[in-house]
């Protein structure tokens, strides 16, 4: 694995926005994974959509294509570091974004996202494919 996809990168792939789908298809599929936090966000989005009966199964099928990495103790440790770093610098990003950033950092993976807030996390490799 090389890349951990943020929620917005998954949505970009599904909707074929930007260059995400093209860039992903140019690489071996085994290079990509999803955090269990990203899966939770995607399922939440499907459940609150105007067509949950359609979007929930589609979201589950999308997620099954990837290795889903559980948020573990190493990720929790990294989260503590990320949050402390951001708070000490007076910076902020969303709580789920901090969890996803910490997860990618703990695994040494590149986080694919179009959210510029991720760039505030020291030592996190970020690529924007939009």
Task: For the structure shown, list the relevant keywords.
single chain; 130 residues; alpha/beta; Rossmann fold; five-stranded parallel sheet; 12% strand; globular
Which regions are unreliable across 5 or more consecutive residues at pLDDT < 50?
none
In angstroms, what separates the terminal alpha carbons? 21 Å
| Mean pLDDT value | 97
| C-alpha-based Rg, rounded | 14 Å
The number of helical runs is 6
Described by the principal axes of the CA atoms, the overall outline is globular
How many distinct beta strands?
Answer: 5
CATH class: Alpha Beta
Major sheet description: 5 strands, parallel
What is the CATH architecture term?
3-Layer(aba) Sandwich
List the strand order in the largest sheet: 3-2-1-4-5
CATH superfamily: 5'-nuclease
Percentage of residues in strands: 5-15%
Kindly identify the CATH topology: Rossmann fold
The ordered string of helix (H) and strand (E) elements is: EHHEHHEHHEE
The number of distinct structural domains comes to 1
Tell me roughly what share of residues is in helical segments: 40-55%
**In terms of structural class, how would the helical and strand content be classed?**
alpha/beta
